[in-house]
Every structure is written in structure tokens, then in C-alpha cells.
Write a structure and sequence with these properties.
This protein is of the alpha/beta class and 231 residues long. It has 2 domains: 4-126, Response regulator (Rossmann fold); 131-224, Arc Repressor Mutant, subunit A, CATH 1.10.10. It has helices at 13-23, 38-48, 64-74, 89-98, 110-121, 132-143, 148-156, 160-165, 170-180, 185-192, 196-210, 215-224, and strands at residues 4-9, 29-35, 52-55, 79-84, 102-105, 126-127. It has a 6-stranded parallel β-sheet, sandwiched between helices. Strand 1 (4-9), helix 1 and strand 2 form a beta-alpha-beta unit. It is globular and about 50 Å long.
């Protein structure tokens, strides 16, 4: 199996150096380029053709938003993972609209960064679990509107989700519930007394069974099926 060819983009040299040193120790990941600005990122990506670009957002000259748009236009197959200090809904939605496949804050654990890189490299979407709480807030507002539930059922069908939920084991339902509540793999593992790697395997099986590709989809599914309470 070939390594994930990765490029790091951050305007702080200390951050770039630290991330590069860490990621190069991870099996199956090869850091092929680093860049200190959006403009340099576009230039280096055209030269090195990385599989994944870990992209800072706030940078001088060309920021991560513009760089992501340019990269996706020039190299559609590249996967962009935002890594930023901004735990902000506006930045999340803007980066996703620009073409990013994942969003992670710099306060995240190192293991979560590795998981995110591997997830987006497969063509899937990675949304930091704690940010899933924003989706819960959005759904609370949606369900507060008159006839919101009836409208949703008419669009999705009353039996589809329950049928899908029945394909999950009890353990998988436990993991799904915690993912939807915003817990990380290590936190879920601690609560269920299993390893984070086992949690990751459960998440992968859940997504395969439900034909889903991101934490965002899992959160929406958990809400629709009543697995988690949004009241």
C-alpha cells in the first residue's frame, strides 16, 4: 500500500517544523512538501502533487480559503484538511464551500490529526467531533419550527432510518451515539473501556453499513433516528 503524500501549509515555521517532525513518524504518511503561504502552497502542490494538504486558514497574502479554492480547481483530486486556531462555524462552512474535505482545530490531539489525514486521504470527510455540536444547535432551531418534523418525515420516509439503525450492533449504536454527541475516539474508548483503534474500526463499520462518509452524516442520522436527544 502506497504512502499518503502530504503537504503542510502554515505561515509559522515552528508549527510547520513541529508538524513535519511528528507526521513523518507516522506509518504510511510521507511529508513531500511544506509551504509558508497560500501562494507557495499552490506552487508547491503543482510540483509535488500531494494526496493531502493540511492547510492553515489565516495567512498573509493568500489565505487558506483562496488557496483551497485554487488547489481544487487546479488539482481536483487533492484532499484539503483545514488545521486552524479558529473553532468557528463561519470558517468551517467557508472552508467546506471552498472544497476542503475536513476541519480540525489546533487544540486537537495529535492522534486525531493522524486520523483526520487518513480519513480524507480515502476520499471521505472528517469533521472534528466536538464541532458536531453545531449541527445539534442547528437541528434544535429547525425542530422548533412548526411542522418541521412532519416535513422531515415526508422527505426521508418514516421507516428508512429505523431499518438502517437495525443493521447496527448494540456496541456500534453506543459508539454512534457518542460520536454524535461530539466525543473523540480516545474519549469514547475510555468510556467503553476499549482502545481508540477499536473505536475507529467501529466507526468505519458503522459508516460502511449506513453508506455514510462523514461525522456530519452520522450526527444527522443519530438525530433523525432519535438515538440522541436534541430537546
Amino acid at each position: 500500500m502506497s504512502s499518503i503524500r502530504l503537504m503542510l501549509v502554515d505561515d509559522h515555521e515552528v508549527v510547520r517544523t513541529g508538524l513535519k517532525a511528528f507526521l513523518e513518524t507516522q506509518e504510511g504518511i510521507e511529508v513531500v512538501a511544506v509551504a509558508g503561504s497560500g501562494a507557495e502552497a499552490v506552487e508547491r502542490a503543482l510540483q509535488e502533487r500531494p494526496d493531502v494538504v493540511v492547510m492553515d486558514i489565516t495567512m498573509p497574502s493568500m489565505d487558506g480559503l483562496e488557496a483551497t479554492r485554487k488547489l481544487k480547481a487546479l488539482i481536483p483530486t487533492v484532499q484539503v484538511l483545514a488545521l486552524t486556531v479558529h473553532e468557528d462555524k463561519q470558517y468551517l462552512f467557508k472552508m467546506m464551500a471552498a472544497g476542503a474535505s475536513g476541519y480540525l482545530t489546533k487544540q486537537s490531539a495529535a492522534a486525531e490529526l493522524v486520523e483526520a489525514v487518513r480519513t480524507v486521504a480515502k476520499g471521505n470527510v472528517y469533521l472534528q467531533p466536538v464541532l458536531a455540536r453545531w449541527l445539534l444547535d442547528d437541528y434544535r432551531r429547525l425542530m422548533a419550527k412548526p411542522d418541521a418534523e412532519a416535513q422531515w418525515v415526508s422527505k426521508t420516509g418514516p421507516d428508512t432510518d429505523q431499518k438502517d439503525l437495525s443493521v447496527l450492533s448494540n456496541r456500534e449504536k453506543q459508539v454512534l451515539e457518542m460520536v454524535a454527541e461530539g466525543f473523540t475516539n480516545p474519549q469514547i474508548g475510555e468510556r467503553l473501556e476499549i482502545s481508540p483503534k477499536t473505536v475507529a474500526r467501529h466507526r468505519e463499520r458503522i459508516m460502511n453499513k449506513l453508506h455514510m462518509h462523514s461525522s456530519t452524516e452520522l450526527v444527522k442520522f443519530a438525530i433523525r433516528t432519535g438515538l440522541i436527544d436534541v430537546q
